[in-house]
Amino acid sequence: MDQAIVDLRSDTVTKPTPAMRRAMAEAEVGDDVYREDPTVNRLQERAAEVFQREAALFVPSGTMGNQAAIKVHTRPGRK
Fold first, then answer.
1. Which long-range contacts (CB under 8 A, 24 or more apart) does 33-39 make?
2. Residue 11: its pLDDT value, please?
3. What's the mean per-residue pLDDT of the chain?
4. Distances (CA, A) of 36 to 24, 27, 54, 68
5. Could you tell me how far CA 36 lies from the centroid of its own chain?
6. How far apart, in whole angstroms, are the C-alpha atoms of residue 34 and residue 56?
7. Cα angle vertex 44, ends 41, 5, to 5°?
């Protein structure tokens, strides 16, 4: 089988295919900070459904995910 390998180690490693670029260019977009991005909203709703949770949050990078986790599990100024 000749299958393409997708390297997910980093968001800067995987190069988008022409079809991926086309999908990005044609995607319906909005401001996700104000919950106005229908694509992100659908992704979060679907993730919550799949993982049987009340809600889900999309973070576009590992760094952002790590920052969210640190903030959930710590308080500023605490050791």
1. none
2. 66
3. 88
4. 17, 13, 19, 21
5. 16
6. 15
7. 115
DSSP per-residue letters across 12-62: TTSPPPHHHHHHHHH-----GGGT--HHHHHHHHHHHHHTT-S-----SSH
Q: How confident is the model at residue 1 (pLDDT cuts 50, 70, 90)?
A: low
First and final CA of the chain: distance in angstroms? 52
Token pair for residue 21?
């670029």
- What element of type H or E holds 71? helix 62-73
Enter the pTM of the model. Answer: 0.65
Residue in 63, 59, 67 with CA at minimum distance from that of residue 76? 67
